[in-house]
Amino acid sequence: MTTPAKHGIVGLTKVVALETAEQNITCNAICPGYVSTRLVEAQIDDQAKSHGIPREQVIRNVLLAQQPNKRFATVEEIGAFATFLASDAAASITGPALPVDGGWTAH
Fold it and tell me: What is the pLDDT of residues 4-40, one digit of tens each?
């Protein structure tokens, strides 16, 4: 997704959160970093092939080089976070862009 599109999603999230707050409707943007998916796996393979380097080197030195926790998030982690945000425990969380990025935004 392009940066302007991401900005649009974050802006829309804030507007929806403000417009629906009195109806006890929450709206949040989950902003994942690298997630272990088939698409990412294909990108790893493509990078390894095009640069002539091993998969592990692509993962460690290219994709996760700036990633503080040095690992991909899992789809299960993202799903669990979404489930939490949809629960009553998160009833007062509305409007933010919430990074799930292994510390990337902490730089």
Answer: 888 999 999 999 999 999 999 999 999 999 999 999 9
Helices (H), the chain: 3-20, 38-51, 55-58, 75-85
Lookup: tokens for 79: 């799903």
CA–CA gap between residue 15 and residue 10 (Å, rounded): 9
Torsion sign across C-alpha atoms 51, 55, 57, 60: positive
The three-class DSSP label of residue 23 is helix
Backbone torsions φ then ψ of 38, nearest 5 degrees = -60, -35
Instruction: Give kind and range of the element (H or E) at residue 100.
Output: strand 97-100
